[in-house]
Specification:
The protein is mostly helical. Helix content is 80%, strand content 0%.
Length: 95
């Protein structure tokens, strides 16, 4: 078992109430439980943030790709519109 060190700490009453509301035999064990849970969850939180960052990067790439495709489609659409205008003009001249 890990060596226990006795410390005296000053904490706000709202935090004392929070610690006291946690499961455990006494204040020290309750506080140790909270700190241990936080410490163990830190790696998990870092990994979760890393996954979110990776998902954001993938979605940015996808968005960039879609924007390029939209730009291409827009250019094609303008060219088709121009061709139709030319055809309409040619037909009007023929009549």
């Amino acid at each position: 078992m890990e060596k226990m060190i006795q410390k005296s700490v000053r904490i706000p009453s709202s935090l004392v109430e929070f610690v006291d509301s946690q499961p455990g035999a006494d204040f020290s064990k309750k506080l140790i439980g909270i700190l241990t849970e936080y410490k163990n969850g830190e790696l998990e939180r870092k990994l979760m943030l890393q996954r979110y960052d990776e998902q954001i990067a993938e979605r940015k790439k996808r968005l960039d790709s879609l924007m390029q495709k939209i730009g291409s489609v827009s250019l094609i659409s303008r060219r088709v519109d121009a061709l139709f205008e030319e055809l309409e003009t040619a037909e009007a001249v023929r009549q």
